[in-house]
Specification:
Shape of chain A: rod-shaped
Oligomer: heterodimer
CATH superfamily of the largest domain in chain B: Periplasmic binding protein-like II
Number of domains of chain A: 4
Structural class of chain A: alpha+beta
Number of helices of chain A: 15
Number of helices of chain B: 15
Distance between the termini of chain A: 65 Å
Radius of gyration of chain A: 65 Å
Largest sheet of chain A: 7 strands, antiparallel
Shape of chain B: globular
Largest interface: A-B, 33 and 33 residues
Number of strands of chain A: 23
Largest sheet of chain B: 5 strands, mixed
Helix content of chain A: 40-55%
Strand content of chain A: 15-25%
CATH architecture of the largest domain in chain A: 4-Layer Sandwich
CATH superfamily of the largest domain in chain A: PPM-type phosphatase domain
CATH topology of the largest domain in chain B: D-Maltodextrin-Binding Protein, domain 2
Radius of gyration of chain B: 20 Å
CATH class of the largest domain in chain B: Alpha Beta
Number of strands of chain B: 10
Strand order of the largest sheet of chain B: 2-1-3-10-4
Order of helices and strands of chain B: HHEHHEHEHEEEHEHEHEEHHHHHH
Chain lengths: 640, 346
């Protein structure tokens, strides 16, 4: 499996890593700073806005208090000194003249008393002293008279337009006049609204802050948007914009509460803070609005500066890391080149002398050690390879020799015409331990055999060669299979160093008597197939395998051969052939193959069995030598 | 059409504004958008010479209470009925009944009970159409001042208007055996807001909402709706004098129909109507407060549509109810019959 190649450089990875952690650190820093400092900023804003509000309130209250004091002075004078009406008027003129807070003074008596005193206003018009009897005979029903009269206490009016006397918008202080403990009228001192507006309207805070004044009924007295003044109340604004929060704020203001609240971004004031505090004289309320952005401006500025510093620091670190990483990784790049050359077989490439650090020095030493090891290894490999090649060549020669020992299947001049014979030997390796052989002993006797040497490799092959050579040699002198095998047993016991035993099935056909004598020394069974396709299995062994015990007694068996009999010999490479389920073919499996065979023909029979065995074990890794020897005897369909 | 006291000073502005407008019109400059067409020779559009000229005086300063008249004028309903209507500025300085009698206006608007009381004098009023079909009159008190139920009203002070409808409240008190200290008040709610009085009578479409606009929540108010107390005395109607009606009966009917059309239009097009009302108020320098006018228009819709099958009609039962009530209280009452008082009903 091919490993995924990392295509990101070390510099990139380090910079990404730094960015990631700087980002986390900065986020935590900003979050914490905002959390901790926003409260401080808010408190500071509340404090500074509160100071401003109270200064303003003191200015307004000072004005109101002064008017109230003048009113009290007038009443005291009226009570204590019996001045003539002209003198009293004169005193009132001088008060208006001297106190710019005063615009007009009105004294009104309760008409229901029937004293005919009525009401009059004194004021200046074009620097002329004016006295105006109150034109509206129904003045007793006007707020400025009726409310303090009913309440029997001092009252500050809402702003109102005085169309008759001063022709100004006024705010009036109204004080009941008591005589003998009974309220007989009202004295009213007017001050101009515009003077109050001039105190409040210019108030500016930071960028967007502004102040507004509402009456105790919620009417907007001053507001930067002049169109709202007097027409709207804080509650009508709230209703118009569907702003319930503003209505709640207005209710708190008219109740004379002090507070510092934040308004939602959807409200009339936007995302802002509102400080509100009452004017103590008349329960009006002053509100100062400051945008949340303004409150947080310094903090935000600080955070922006911190952000910029962080970006600059990040960029600087990135550049340093980039160039430093390039410098550090330079030896790595050099070593990459060296490794590539070594990989291409150049083991003598010179290592660079760039050991500027401990790690690179170690890397150079390791590279040198690796280079030397590789050289040594390759040298050993070359020697081993040469040795192996020589052995392989020799094995090949041994194999060739072994093959020469096996008779070839092409028409053999020595095989008598009564017999057709076909052998197959498939060694699992270059050289094997299986063997088949056939040859005429004389004109009457035809010898054939099949053997399997236990073990594999050279030793088995040598034993096989010994068996083959011995058989051919001794068969000339013995015409009995058991004698031949007994001789062979003793020979092998004496001369076989590895003590590899050999299973062997040896047969001699007497061509004149039509008999077959055979001995089975520990070998797999012999099958004799009749011309009617029935078969007979000769499974009885006449001894154990040869080559183990000296002077082994071996029996033999003779059977009569019929015309067309087919003899099938094989080694255990057939019956022990294994499929992918690790199951053997077994003798029974072979028998089923034999039952399916067609007309006896040694070559076809041998090839068919071989094909079926290959088919059986086609998916198996296990391999053993496979040997089959088939022959038929005096087959009638054969052309002589 | 009781108005908070602080609006009164602005009548001065209203008069100034009116004079200013007249000056502009006299100079034949660009005609006023809604006012000019009605009484100026508007040669380009229709020859107004062929239209019947008529003056209408609302019983108070311009506000959504008269929305139907404004929309009938603006949408050309009057012109399509062959009328050239001039809408006069109303207010405290122009009492509608007196101006009708003195001929300063041809048609005006009056409460039914006012009309039937004042008519005892001259016996010449004719009701052309009945705009209101439901009483909007209420009494309110602050719960936190200890007025939680009807019995809490005993011994408390009640502000009643010096003129219209005080009788109705007095009848209510008598019917319910309540003993209250009556304080005469003008068109102000400030006495109530400043706690100089405990209760006050208000119109639902006007003063009641102004109280809410002073920051008092509806839940904090104890209210009595006369319409639910067997005193559903209907209010606004259109009136002219008998002499005028006899002389121009057809034009009077057409004015009534066009005005009712205007009301239907106003109710179906509230946003447009609201803009129109606010424009008129601004032009006359009357303090305008959009949510208040929106509330008023919505409430006027409720009184106009209270009996959907009898829009614009003065029912005999309503006429009789008021008449009996006035007789019962020994108050002056019109001697006219229902058929004579409301000839359009026939």
């Amino acid at each position: 499996m091919a490993a995924k190649h990392e295509d990101r450089t070390i510099a990139f990875q380090i910079i990404t890593f730094i960015f990631f952690f700087l980002f986390i650190i900065f986020s935590v820093y900003v979050g914490t700073t905002r959390l901790l400092f926003s409260r401080i900023m808010t408190d500071n804003a509340q404090e500074s806005v509160g100071h401003l509000a109270h200064e303003t309130i003191n200015l307004i209250d000072g004005r109101f208090t002064k008017v109230e004091a003048l009113s009290k002075a007038l009443l005291d004078l009226r009570r204590m000194a019996s001045l003539s009406e002209a003198d009293y008027n004169s005193f009132m003129y001088s008060l208006i003249y001297e106190h710019h807070e005063l615009e007009c003074i009105t004294i009104a008596y309760d008409p229901s008393l029937g004293n005919g005193l009525g009401a009059k206003s004194v004021f200046y018009r074009n620097n002329r002293e004016m006295v105006l009897p109150y034109p509206n005979s129904d003045y007793q029903y006007l707020d400025w008279f009726q409310i303090p009269f009913l309440l029997q206490r001092n009252f500050w009016t809402e702003p109102w337009f005085d169309a008759s006397a001063t022709q100004q918008v006024l705010v009036s202080f109204c004080q009941p006049i008591f005589e003998d403990g009974k309220c007989i009228g009202i004295i009213r001192l007017d001050t101009k609204l515009v003077d109050l507006q001039n105190i409040v309207t210019p108030l500016k805070l930071k960028r967007s802050g502004f102040a507004f004044l509402i009456s105790n009924l919620g009417t907007l007295i001053t507001h930067p948007a002049d169109s709202l003044v007097m027409d709207e109340s804080i509650f009508s604004l709230a209703e118009d914009t569907g702003d319930q929060q503003l209505r709640k704020l207005g209710q708190a203001m008219v109740k004379g509460e002090v507070g510092f609240v934040r308004t939602s971004p959807q409200s009339v004031f936007g995302d802002s803070w509102v400080y509100y505090s009452p004017i103590y004289s008349n329960n009006w309320s002053l509100g100062i609005v400051i945008a949340n952005n303004d409150v947080m401006r310094d903090l935000n500025l600080l955070l922006i500066i911190q952000l910029l510093i962080s970006i600059v620091a990040f960029l600087t670190i990135s550049i340093i890391v980039y160039y430093r990483t390039l410098s550090v990784s330079k030896p790595l790049r050099v070593f990459t080149g060296v490794a590539e050359k070594i990989g291409q077989g150049d083991f003598n490439v010179a290592l660079p002398d760039i050991g500027k650090s401990y790690e690179i020095d170690r890397l150079t030493q390791s590279f040198a050690a690796m280079q030397n090891s590789l050289k040594e290894y390759i040298r050993n490999l070359q020697i081993t390879s040469a040795e192996k090649n020589r052995i392989i060549a020799e094995v090949r020669i041994a194999s060739e020799i072994q093959r020469k020992l096996i008779p070839r299947n092409e028409k053999h001049p020595d095989v008598p015409s009564e017999i057709r014979i076909h052998g197959v030997l498939e060694p699992a390796n270059e050289i094997g331990g299986d063997l088949f052989d056939y040859f005429p002993i004389d004109d009457r006797h035809f010898c054939f055999g099949i053997a399997d040497v236990a073990g594999k490799g050279i030793a088995a092959a040598m034993t096989m060669s010994m068996v083959s050579t011995f058989l051919r040699t001794i068969a000339k002198y013995h015409l009995s299979t058991n004698e031949i095998l007994e001789q062979m047993n003793n020979f092998l016991v004496r001369n076989n160093i590895e003590a590899n035993f050999v299973t062997i099935l040896l047969g001699i056909i007497d061509l004149q008597e039509d008999t077959l004598e055979f001995s089975n020394a520990g070998h797999v069974p012999l099958f004799v197939r009749k011309i009617n396709r029935n078969y007979q299995k000769y499974a009885e062994t006449h001894s154990t395998a040869v080559g183990m015990f000296e002077n082994l007694k071996i029996a033999s068996e003779s059977i009569k051969l019929d015309l067309g009999d087919e003899l099938i010999l094989f080694t255990d490479g057939i019956t022990e052939a294994m499929n992918e389920k690790e199951e053997f073919l077994t003798v029974a499996g072979l028998e089923s193959i034999i039952r399916d065979l067609g007309t006896p023909n040694p070559e076809t029979t041998a090839n068919t069995i071989l094909y079926r065995v290959h088919d059986f074990c086609r998916n198996s890794q296990e391999k053993d030598d496979i040997t089959i020897l088939t022959l038929d005897y005096k087959h009638p369909k054969r052309n002589p | 059409m009781k108005f908070a006291d602080y609006t009164r000073p602005f009548c001065f502005y209203a008069i100034l504004g009116g004079l200013f407008l007249l000056a502009i019109l006299a100079c034949q400059k660009e005609p006023d958008a809604w006012h000019g067409k009605s009484h100026l020779a508007n040669s380009a559009a229709e020859p107004t010479d062929s239209l019947f000229k008529l003056r209408f005086l609302p019983q108070w300063t311009h506000q959504a209470q008269f929305a139907g008249v404004y929309m009938a004028e603006k949408k050309g309903f009057y012109r399509s009925y062959g009328l050239d209507v001039k809408i006069l500025p109303g207010g405290a300085d122009a009492p509608s009944y007196d101006n009708l009698q003195s001929g300063k206006t041809d048609i005006t608007q009056l409460f039914l009970i006012t009309a039937m009381t004042r008519d005892a004098e001259n016996r010449n009023l004719v009701n052309l159409a009945q705009i209101s079909q439901k009483s909007a009159l209420m009494l309110v008190g602050k719960k936190d001042r200890g007025i939680q139920s009807q019995k809490d009203m005993n011994g408390r002070s009640l502000g009643l208007w010096r003129s219209d409808f005080r009788d109705l409240s007095l009848i209510y008190l008598k019917q319910n055996k309540l003993n209250m200290d009556i304080v005469n008040v003008d068109f102000t709610i400030n006495l109530f807001l400043n706690n100089a009085i405990d209760m006050i009578n208000v119109m639902r479409y006007n003063e009641y909402h102004r109280i809410l606009q002073a920051g008092i929540d509806p839940d904090d108010l104890f209210t009595i709706n006369f319409s639910e107390e067997g005193l559903n005395i209907i209010e606004d109607g259109l009136y002219c004098t008998r002499a005028y009606y006899n002389r121009y009966p057809e034009q009077c009917k057409r004015f009534a129909e066009a005005t009712l059309d205007g009301w239907v239009y106003a109710i179906n097009h509230q946003e447009e109507t609201l803009e129109t009302v606010l424009n008129i108020m601004r032009r006359h320098h009357i303090p305008s407060n959009k949510p208040h006018q929106a509330w008023m228009l919505q409430e006027m819709r409720n009184v106009f549509m209270a009996r959907p099958s009898e829009i614009g009609i003065l029912r005999k039962t309503d006429f009789e109810l008021v008449k009996n009530l006035l007789i019962e209280q020994n108050n002056p009452v019109t001697p006219q019959s229902y058929e004579s008082f409301y000839p359009n009903g026939r």
